[in-house]
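From the pipeline queue, job 12 of 40. The input is one protein chain; the requested action is below.

Action: predict structure.
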Amino acid sequence: MEKRIILGMLFAMTFVLSATAQDAMSVIRKHYTETQQKIEAIEKEEIPQEYYEVKILQNLPGTGQHQEVMRLYYNVKDNEDWQPDEPMLTRDLHFVTWKYNYAAREFYEEYLYDDKGNIEFVYNRNADLDEVGGELRLYYKDGKLFKVLVSNLNPETEKYEQTYSGSKMPEKYANALESINYKVGRWKRLFDELDGDTFH
């Protein structure tokens, strides 16, 4: 009897956690869609361009020409506590795209931040995840990872197919997660450096 009660409670807790995760993912996906619509409007010049772009070109030994293009999109707000020696506007990092290559291998990553500056979503298409390439989608709540989706490229269909769904990163992708965690902070530091030296 007690065992059944405990199992029932565990099932109920799992269901609640699962429902909560689904709700959080729905909110993040909505935010991501709105961000993509805003970027599309920027590209069509329907709204002002509000991003910094950093482009790096270099010749790397053994791999040849290497190019990185980073775009750091931001939101602009009035500085409500404005003082004469401060900017009249504030800018918050909102979304980052990073496209780069090593020789013929191409990589692409996206980082979505919430209104509090916490990371809430990362997309990583990484030619090194597997021999045929792979994708990671990471979902965060209050800056903490709660959902991981892994897809791998099927060489026969040339389409990505989901191969893992869980609350933790698979061990074989631990290095990728470590790199992503570093870049979550890297983009904020880069944005602060760029933003601190521009006119508001």
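Job complete. Residues 3-17 have pLDDT under 50 and may be disordered.
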